[in-house]
């Protein structure tokens, strides 16, 4: 009798063990499935753009602290080949602006643009006035430490007078070889472009390089107030969305595309980089242009020929016998 009881107890223990194992197995499978499906939590993103990944990293890292990867912080995930945006990872100050307007569970381009335009300027801390932006950049038009270049091109029918600090250009060129023969500007570099019509500045566009390697863009009107878009012909361009479209794209533009040859005239007049004709025609200018291939490569999302022209002037100074010793060192670093 006692043997039978002992046998019955052993059967009950085995049954309990099987039950516990089954529950454990089910929980394990559910946990595994939950982990696999974690990337699907959130709002799917379909921008219908060829460079969707780069665009998402540009905008979403711009809404986070400097240098933060939106995928690394959990703001941006993946569900197979699709991207997923997790609203709970956004700062509360910008989260309320995110709208799935058609309630289809997917953020499309128009919905994404509306979100960015509602949050971008403030999230990036771009000053509300041009005076404040200039002060932050340490800019003064009369300061000779800023290199100046006048351009008539496709961005606007106005003439653009563009300023960039000389030390930013030199640091970029000094690091050219180390950067894999790429033009990469240091974080904090600022470009300021005044748009001139009839002898007056009618608006100003600016860009400032972030620590995460992307650029911030802003527009200021004639009174120096920050505005969402340019106003000059041939069309208004919204910042940052349309700025980013060109700077991260691959399309080439005149007059940079044709340089050092003259560019074909556009519908609003000549398209030209305003430099001395002797400098444009110099063989060394063609040499610098070929070396950097700056406009086509746009290694840093910069469309202008700033490094090319700065180097061309140094080569012209060497030809003229007036090159400063530190400039000779720089040309030597570039292999010129």
In short:
Helix content is 39%, strand content 18%. The chain has twelve helices and eleven strands. Helix 9 packs antiparallel against helix 11 (306-319).
Distinct helical segment count: 12
The Rg value, from CA coordinates, equals 28 Å
Q: What percent of residues adopt helix (DSSP H or I)?
A: 25-40%
Number of strands: 11
Give, in order, the helices and strands. Answer: HEHEEHEHHEEHEEEEHEHHHHH
Distance between the termini: 103 Å
Based on CA inertia axes, which overall geometry fits? globular
Q: List low-pLDDT spans.
A: 1-8, 12-39
Indicate the structural class.
alpha+beta
In spatial order, strands of the major sheet run 10-9-8-7-6-5-11
Keywords:
about 325 residues, alpha+beta, 7-stranded antiparallel β-sheet, 4-stranded mixed β-sheet, 12 helices, about 20% strand, disordered N terminus
Polypeptide structure, described:
It is a single chain. This protein has 336 residues and is an alpha+beta fold. The protein folds into three domains: 10-38; 42-123, no CATH class; 130-333, no CATH class. The chain is 39% helix and 18% strand. It has twelve helices and eleven strands. The chain has helices spanning 2-36, 52-62, 92-95, 109-123, 130-137, 166-174, 241-247, 277-281, 283-292, 294-297, 306-319, 325-333; strands spanning 43-46, 76-79, 82-85, 106-108, 146-152, 159-165, 190-197, 200-209, 215-221, 226-227, 272-274. A seven-stranded antiparallel beta sheet has the order 10-9-8-7-6-5-11. Strand 7 and strand 8 (200-209) form a beta hairpin. The radius of gyration is 28 Å and the shape is globular. It starts with a helix and ends with a helix. Residues 1-8 and 12-39 have low confidence and may be disordered.
